[in-house]
Amino acid sequence: MMSVTVASAPSRCKLRCAATLLPPSPSSALDLPIVWHLAFHPAGTYLAVCRGLSSANGTPYYDTTPDVVDRSSPATAVTSPSIDVYSAGKNDVGWLHALSLPTPSVHSRTVRCASFSSSGRWIAAAGFDGIVSIWSFPGAECVAALEGHESEVKSVCWRGDRTVATCGRDKTVWVWERFDDSDGGEPEFECVAVLSGHAGDVKTIVFASDGVLL
Q1: What is the pLDDT along the chain (214 residues), one digit of tens a residue?
Q2: Distance in angstroms (rounded) separating the CA atoms of residues 163 and 181
Q3: Where are any strands of DSSP class E within 16-159?
């Protein structure tokens, strides 16, 4: 899938298409990258869309190579890893592109998953390059790049505004805690637990609503 459809439910049994969200500036249908993941802001007023790589001729490219993407190449220049954020328009205008996180400045491979913190102040992004980036919102500034996974990170989720959990192809789950700089600088994140024991990839992760179970 290369576009995003936002549907609304005016009644219990009917859905209607509210918007179809395309990348901000596709020059042609062949430029549409794969949509990997969607994440709503807690207030429901923003939607983050993770778009990954596809080849120049429209054939899906699943990013199985560990090599760094050459963004100067015409084949990948329009499909670099990205997170585009859309805002809900007013007066039935629809969903509008609000901003794009400059993820290629941090990630060299597909951004597989994104998650808003419970306050909506932060976005965590999980990449196939093994990096988890933390972004301020709506400032769109990368405040931390978490490294430790030995392979692709496939999912990320928050508990509140301080705890991040990640999982991936290395069969592990990592739990990170946020510590604020007493001088008002950028926050720091520290791994507080690594959970192992799975025999295969851990592809998704979520906290229970009470935050007690993972």
Answers
A1: 556 766 665 656 677 777 888 887 665 555 567 889 999 999 999 999 998 765 444 444 444 444 443 434 433 333 466 899 999 877 656 789 999 999 989 998 889 999 999 999 999 999 999 999 999 999 999 999 999 999 999 999 999 999 999 999 999 999 999 998 666 677 899 999 999 999 999 999 999 988 889 9
A2: 16
A3: 16-21, 35-40, 46-51, 82-88, 95-101, 111-116, 122-127, 131-136, 142-147, 153-159
- Report the predicted TM-score, pTM, of the whole model to 2 decimal places: 0.81
Cβ–Cβ under 8 Å, residues 111 and 80: no
The DSSP letter of residue 60 is B
Question: Residue 130 carries which DSSP code?
Answer: S
CA pair distance 50, 52, nearest whole angstrom: 7
Quote the tokens at residue 60: 């899906």
Q: How far apart, in whole angstroms, are the C-alpha atoms of residue 187 and residue 210? A: 24
- Residue pair 11/63 in contact (Cβ under 8 Å)? The answer is no
Cβ 69 vs Cβ 82: under 8 Å: no
